[in-house]
Design brief:
alpha/beta; 7-stranded mixed beta sheet; 12 helices; 7 strands; binds S-adenosylmethionine
């Protein structure tokens, strides 16, 4: 099993912090995806604790949530208890068998955990002709370059610098609109060349948020780059980051962008 395969299974260890600290997704993004799909049913891949689910459930369309981690699915179950149209399948997307053709497949922060050699075949198989795909991720950036440097130094010292953290990027790297570089990311060209999909487009949504020191430690606790560390290294990294933030007023302000990839099964 590769490290990537292990990393995708770590979220349930910190389901409470995940639910408490991770941001949701812009209402405009949800409205745009629902409009692009033009109707249900929906399948959500890697639903986690339901950070995206309730916003989509408000549409009233049936949703099948596919989530392999029982601890994440338990939190999700509590959140969607008031939505009878939402069902949960505790399974990887690779092992799940779609029982009906879906009009929308969406995935928030999870598509990269699905087997890259199979995910587009699986999406194609799950969708009705004309069915939509919506994949989206949040990315954070720190505006204060001195703070960015101090937090990066803590990560480097504790060996937490091998993966993504919300303070890995400077905010200025996220203010631009999406362009050629982003098309190289996220398999843009691969899907552009796949004649089974059309209407490919990228959109970016901008926001801001502020965390207290404790909230930011919860956020990092839910992130795979910290979860895969040995416990003593993780504790050292989180303590070091808390110390930096406490010395700078006890909070951190972040730029938040949400990048959306849309496409459609032919
Ligand atoms: C970063 S979390 C995102 C959760 C949620 N969608 C959200 O927006 O907060 C990634 C989720 O993908 C799930 N996951 C990992 N591998 C998966 C796979 N092969 N198929 C489906 N979900 C998977 C994890 O269990 C985890 O809940």
């Amino acid at each position: 099993m590769t490290q990537e395969r292990e990393r995708r299974a770590v979220f349930g260890e910190a389901a409470t912090q995940y639910e408490a600290a991770r941001p949701g997704y812009p209402a405009q993004l949800v409205a745009d995806v629902i409009a692009f799909a033009g109707g249900g049913p929906y399948v959500e891949v890697g639903a986690g604790t339901g950070k995206a689910t309730t916003a989509f459930a408000a549409s009233g369309e049936p949703i099948t949530c596919v989530e392999p981690d029982a601890r994440m699915a338990e939190v999700l179950g509590g959140k969607v208890a008031g939505y009878p149209e939402v069902s949960i399948q505790v399974s990887t997307f690779e092992s799940w068998l779609p029982g009906r053709p879906y009009r929308l497949l969406y995935s928030a922060q999870a598509w990269h955990w699905v087997d890259p050699d199979r995910r587009w075949d699986l999406a194609h198989a799950a969708l009705a002709p004309g069915g939509a795909v919506a994949l989206f991720w949040n990315a954070f950036g720190v505006a204060d370059s001195a703070l960015h440097a101090e937090l990066s130094e803590v990560d480097r010292r504790c060996g937490a610098d091998a993966g993504y953290a919300p303070h890995t990027l400077l905010a200025e790297e996220l203010t631009r609109d999406l362009g050629e570089d982003d098309q190289q990311d996220w398999e843009f060209n691969k899907i552009a060349d796949d004649s089974r999909f059309s209407d490919l487009q990228l959109r970016r949504y901008h926001g801001q948020l502020t965390y207290s020191t404790a909230g930011y430690v919860d956020l990092l606790t839910s992130i795979s780059a910290y979860r895969i560390l040995e416990p003593d290294r993780r504790e050292a990294a989180l303590a070091g980051i808390a110390e930096v933030l406490d010395s700078r007023g006890g909070c951190i302000s972040l730029t938040l962008v949400t990048d959306l990839t849309l496409t459609r099964r032919v």
